[in-house]
Input
Amino acid sequence: MTKKQRALGLLIVLFPFVAFFVSLSIGVVHIPLDGVLKSLLSPIFPSLKQGLPENYFGIVLGVRLPRLLLALLAGAGLSVSGASLQALSKNALVNEYILGISSGAAFGASLSIVIFRQSFPPQISAFVFAVAAVMIVLLISRNSDSPIVSLLLTGIIVSAFFSALLSLVEFFASPYALQGLFYWLMGNLGWPGWGALSISLPLTAIGTAGLILMRWRMNVLSMSDEEARSLGVNIRREKLLVIFLATLVTAAVTSVAGIIGWVGLIVPHLVRMMVGVDNRRVVPLSAAMGAGYLILADDLARSLASSFEIPVGIFTSLIGIPFFILLLRKSKRIWL
Amino acid sequence: MSIWVKDLRFDYRNFSLHVQNLRFEAAKLTSIVGPNGAGKTTLLKCLCAILPIARDSLFLDRRDIALLSAEERARLIAYVPQEHGSAFNYAVQDFVLMGRAAYVSLFSTPSAADVEIAFEALEYVGLRRYAARPYFELSSGERRLVLIARALAQKSDFLVLDEPTSFLDPKHETELMDLARRLAVEKKKTVLVTLHNLDVAVKYSDAMVFMKKGGVVASGRPDDILTEPLLESVYEIKMTILRYDGRKFIVK
Output
């Protein structure tokens, strides 16, 4: 690891903390940074509350803090699962969106919300269909002469299939439910309520932590299957474990925040450009970078218009796709 | 530390391998030769359980390979593929470190001792100075050495090299075979290589195995088994064996 990589790594670690703090001041009501600091510390030092406008306290702690925590965990989770899936499929183009996980999860969650009126937890339904989608993709695309192309193509096909199923759900939804569903599907971090979060946040945290623990294993799993096997890896078991954890994270995030695409692809890429390809660094630093990135994207979503919010998923796609094309043209080696 | 092939069968769609009762002696270099499609690589991949094999057909030190876990097997036998392709361009030291996978648990990262072993392996193949270089920036000869270093990091008693000298110039070919020889002599490893160059095989091998159409035609010390009729029956062209300076040379 060079000195430059070390310095950039440190910057990546600091990024979410700075983004988090600064973002507490951004929104319809602008709160100066010292106001943010005083509001954050006021539960411990009540005297700080004096002299602050009354609404600061409620906005910082009651509205923005929970939302930023959700953005932080969702960004970290999506990025870590993207990095893991890329190592696993030996393909830097792969993400949860391309493997059909997002569409499967979106269908599963909407099925639960619209048809079962949430009597069945949307997280579980999202997870079941996300696993179904990724397993179908992997089963169809294996044993192909050109695994990468067939993986991408089957991913598109399976995504299209689940999108059609999703349209069917939308067709049967009441106009009122449809509006909520529509807004949710575009990806937004508006407050989903403690009930939904109390399931999704722990699942996201567990999945992300598991993948971060397996960070070195990702290096070995990114070798060809023959090589990994000869190095002593139980390929089938370990691959399934990584897919399970990555899908768990994506399903948990999707069921509360909708489809927030391209985060899992862009973030690991930026990290690799800055600190090299060793997953011992890439996986944990993707968590930090992803958290900061989604917080900033959500700032845009919250503050661009004063009377309404734009879904953050629109921004991650609008930023992500041109950036992705740029990367694609710039670096040849890692695409192979 | 010997390998015993008892009754090994492996079937592809239009090819079948069947090897009965073959032994590879401990701490010796054995080369496997034969025409393309003879089943050399298939035999190696069966030995490393890259291909699925039946019970009771292959034994490492009297232990049935089919009954070993992936980790146990990787600590006993290391495989050096012809080439490595990856979407990610790892630094040489990180690449060699992957040889420690069988010693590092699933949710853990390599220890300082593992890193030390990886560096020792790089030192042994003479590439310590390239530790921080990206793998794909190396020449094909250097990449071969890095692949061997990764196998050395596995600390296995058995080492299997699949055509290690293909695409190498004579100098690198010689260096690589000298290294393979040292591994058998100095490190007491049981080394198996598949080769196409018969002169190289004769020069470096303690024993040779001739294969054809999925079976073993002859095996033993090069001096004992190497005859013109054998070469002609295996390769289906006329070859002449010349003696010079106490060694055998093969002329096509």
Q: What stands out?
A: The longest helix of chain B spans residues 170-185. Chain B touches chain A through 37 residues (CB under 8 Å).
